[in-house]
Amino acid sequence: MRPQVSIRKTATYEQTVVRRSIERHLEALGVWEELRPGMKVLLKPNLLMSRRPEEATTTHPALVAALIELLRERDITDITLADSPGGPYSRALLGAIYRTTGMDAAAARGATLNEDTAAGERNCPEGRVCHRFDLIAPVLEADYIISLPKLKTHGMTLLSGAVKNLFGCIPGLLKAEMHNRYPELEPFAGMLLDLCQTVRPNLTIVDAVVGMEGDGPSGGTPRQIGLTLAARNPYALDLVLAALIGLRPRQVPTVRQSIERGLAPDSLEGLDLIGEPEAFRPMADFQKPASRAVDFSSHVPAPLAALARRLLGRLVAPRPRVQPDRCVGCGRCAEACPMHTITIEHRRAVIHSRGCIQCFCCHELCPARAIVIKKGWIR
Length: 379
Description:
The protein is of the alpha/beta class. It is built from twelve helices and 16 strands. Strands 1, 2, 3, 4, 7, 8, 9, 10, 11 and 12 form a ten-stranded mixed beta sheet that branches. The chain has a two-stranded antiparallel ribbon with strand order 5-6. A hairpin with a 7-residue loop joins strand 10 and strand 11. Helix 7 crosses helix 9. The radius of gyration is 20 Å and the shape is globular.
């Protein structure tokens, strides 16, 4: 059976508009046939950092509120909202993020905000890169997981969507450890696929009403898209999301590897787009991150492309750079850096390029947007 991806026009975050779209997604995908009263349901939004909903960095609370209402109307009352944002996994940080992102108001519709910072292990027999993960407790305890990513670009993986959203299931600073263990992009992308196969979300609903283009996932620009998308198959969903923002499957490492593993078809022709498929219109002008690497693969044979990347890497590779006039010296970048190449000197962050793996965690988590991505000299 071909994977189904449901697409709905969702022009605004007005509550009745969002609720209607979410309800039709659930009906089209047959979700109510699976959900039963008494189930422990986990809602996993993207809560990267403390940003207001209008900044388009986090999942909008309107989607979460609508979903909670719909679940409770079906007598599904054991609903937990949880994520592990960047930085320490602490009750204080979670509380601040819930308030700023509007998740506390959304949860007031009938869900519990997770404050449990416990974690546990789960094995991944299908894993090709990583065979065991530490996961936050609500993931381990859930009977049914609904992932709610925000459609954004990403400095490292190009796309922040269905698969990448699950990186927040790894607790706190252990995410930096994963960057340290898998500093190269391809193994890191493989690890993300292994993680997705471990968490196994039952459903993914994407907030693409307003996405983020440019230097996402936190330093980009909000972009009106006017859609919500949903699927049971997160890999197929990312194939659609990549096409929507003008990326070919091979450009996004998680999408390309999911095709190679047989988790998704190799093109949109292998999917069933349902709902309002006419609303799917690829956005060729969607701005990509400055970190996007030069793509040799379409011009030269694979061995030569690999050699070119090695020889020209330093001249081509983008690097994070600190804007001193914006830096407040909070130390979040140094805390998040998996390679410990950032220090705070004279109340300003200093990035030591030797050892930098271009994971862009510093850029991703800087609350002052003081770290930018500079293109390599050749580019």
